[in-house]
Design brief:
UDP N-Acetylglucosamine Acyltransferase, domain 1; 6-stranded mixed β-sheet; 15 strands; elongated; 2 domains; 5-stranded parallel β-sheet; alpha/beta
């Protein structure tokens, strides 16, 4: 037990630059308190002592703001940062070295019995406010961006963002010595953000539309210059009610779009 607590404290030093000493982490980190007490309630749950286990988990929820069902499985060195409003359902499973931020929900989507909640692999980071719903798997090394809603499987080393969540980056996680806490956290990204700011598919589509519009505008101007060079008045139009010259002057005076 004490080895697990020591590992948890060391993992906080690696992930939270605000942590100054072990005493501060031991006394003032409710996310760790919630996980430590969950281990007790989970042990009771597995021993079929269900009623006391639920009572304990509810007391811990009132004290820490973190609700972890006694039936949930939480791996080693997991860390809930800024612990508040976190909900982890009964059949949820967390691997080792997972990091969850405030407002995260690992919820179910069905009323039936059996597996209803997500499974997180090792070294998974879930950003603030993210919702992972249903019996899906978030594979090792995956990142879930803040406020994302995940309802489908997430592959190993993949980053997803948005509502519903979509892939913005795929990268195989670094291989690390399991005995080294520092090396094991290589590639850690707080709140599940990514370095590639141009990876959002929606932003790429909008950017491509603007580029295409700009390209068409340049082609029209080239055609206009060619017509002017051939002595043809390009401002004349046969469409009733439209003055091409006024339209062109209005377009030239507008700020336009910057790509």
């Amino acid at each position: 037990m004490f080895k697990h607590i020591r590992d948890d404290i060391n993992s906080v030093f690696a992930r939270d630059p605000a942590a100054r000493n072990a005493a501060e982490i031991l006394l003032l980190y409710p996310g760790l308190h919630a996980i430590w007490w969950h281990r007790v309630s989970h042990w009771l749950w597995n021993k079929k002592v269900r009623w006391p286990a639920r009572i304990l988990s509810n007391i811990v929820r009132l004290l820490t703001g973190v609700e972890i069902h006694p039936g949930a499985t939480v791996g080693r060195r997991c860390f809930i940062d800024h612990a508040s409003g976190v909900v982890i359902g009964e059949t949820a499973e967390l691997g080792d070295d997972c990091t969850l931020y405030h407002g995260v929900t690992l919820g179910g989507t069905s009323w039936g019995s059996g597996k209803r909640h997500p499974t997180l692999g090792n070294n998974v980071v879930v950003g603030a406010g993210a919702k992972i719903l249903g019996p899906i798997t978030i594979a090792d090394g995956a990142r879930v961006g803040s406020n994302s809603v995940v309802v489908k499987e997430v592959a190993e080393g993949t980053t997803v963002v948005g509502i519903p969540a979509h892939v913005v980056k795929e990268k195989k996680p670094e291989k690390a010595d399991p005995k080294s806490r520092v090396e094991q956290l290589i590639g850690f990204r707080a709140y599940g953000e990514i370095d590639d700011t141009h990876g959002d598919p929606v932003a790429q589509v909008v950017s491509n539309i603007l580029r295409h519009s700009r390209a068409l505008e340049l082609q029209v101007r080239c055609l206009q210059q060619a017509l002017d060079g051939a002595g043809i008045d390009s401002t004349r139009t046969a469409i009733p009610g439209i003055d091409a010259a006024d339209f062109l002057r209005e377009e030239e005076s507008s700020p336009g779009y910057v790509i």
